[in-house]
Amino acid sequence: MSLKLRLARAGTKKRPFYHIVVADARSPRDGRFIEKLGTYNPLLAKDNEGRIVLNAERAQHWLSVGAQATDRVERFLDAAGLLKREAKNNPNKAKPGAKATERAEERAAKAAELEAAKNAPKEEPAAETPAEEATAE
């Protein structure tokens, strides 16, 4: 049986509240669990001590018997000093998609066009020569 330390959602619509639980990996997110280890309230300020409440002793026990923590719970355990979490690195995540890149290139081309038109020497009308003025009268 594969065990997971994970979050189980509680709370009402648009007011999330999570229980940190140990559950069988095959059971549904809010379904049956083995033990409740703590709570997580994302609506509280990050510096509020009630935001994450965790029974560190029991969490350490479950980790020692082979339970795997999910990414979010792993962050909590790292903050509590129970687990060392390696920082993730996804350099492609921040890159814009193909359409956004295309729009940015079009915008840059238009801006360059306007700048070139603005800086181009203005053509002044050719001054008429005195011979042309005489014939025009």
Layout of secondary structure:
Blueprint: E1 3-12, E2 15-24, E3 35-40, E4 52-54, H1 56-64, E5 68-69, H2 71-80, H3 98-119, H4 130-136
Parallel strand pairs: 1-5
Antiparallel strand pairs: 1-2, 2-3, 3-4
GO molecular function, one term: structural constituent of ribosome
InterPro entries: Ribosomal_bS16 (IPR000307), Ribosomal_bS16_dom_sf (IPR023803)
Pfam family, one: Ribosomal_S16
Care to describe what's here?
- Helices cover 35% and strands 23% of the residues.
- With 137 residues, it is of the alpha+beta class.
- Strands 4-3-2-1-5 form a five-stranded mixed beta sheet.
- β1 (3-12) and β2 form a beta hairpin.
- The radius of gyration is 33 Å and the shape is rod-shaped.
- 12% of the residues are buried.
- Belongs to the bacterial ribosomal protein bS16 family.
- Keywords: Ribonucleoprotein, Ribosomal protein.
Tell me the overall shape.
Answer: rod-shaped
Radius of gyration: 33 Å
What is the overall pLDDT average? Answer: 88
End-to-end separation: 107 Å
Q: Find the structural class using helix and strand composition.
A: alpha+beta
Sheet of most strands:
5 strands, mixed
From N to C, what is the helix and strand string? EEEEHEHHH
**Weakly predicted, low-confidence segments:** none
Tally of alpha and pi helices? 4
The CATH architecture designation of one domain is 2-Layer Sandwich
Quick tags:
137 residues; alpha+beta; S16 Ribosomal Protein, Chain: A; 5 strands; 35% helix; rod-shaped; Ribosomal_bS16_dom_sf
Structure described in brief:
With 137 residues, the chain is an alpha+beta fold. 35% of the residues lie in helices and 23% in strands.
